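Quick question, first post here. What does this chain look like in 3D?
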Amino acid sequence: MSKPMSKMLIWVGVFFAIVFGIYGAKIIYMIVKMSNYQPPAVTISSTQVISKTWQSYLTAVGSLTAINGVELSTETAGTIASIRFQSGQFVKQGDVLITLDTSTEEAALKDNQAQLKLAKINYDREKELLARKVASQAAFDARFAELQQAEAGV
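> Answer (accepted):
Ran it through. Tokens below.
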């Protein structure tokens, strides 16, 4: 072997000896430290027991999910006015379970009924005017269409 090659092998050997020596020293150091390890003391705290009354109810907004049951849904949105069953109660098909607040819809129905009444009066008036040849067929047709719209609204 040539002299530069043997020098290089010696330096590589020294380098690896240093690296593995440092690694071995770390392991020995950790073993020594862990052999004297004491776990920290457990902290215990205590307090005086006080009797208090708990709130018997809690108001919240949410949804109910039954473990065994059915999922109820409505075709229209609205505020629930009353729930007509108890938890765990058996119900039959056709039973009313929940009623919605329909005050808005009832007011709209009264409005539509009033519009229907007015449309009927206007239709009859236009029909009479058409019979006397005072009104046009187009005006009569418009009153008839208004009457049909009002009936559909009701």
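The radius of gyration is 45 Å.
The longest helix spans residues 3-35.
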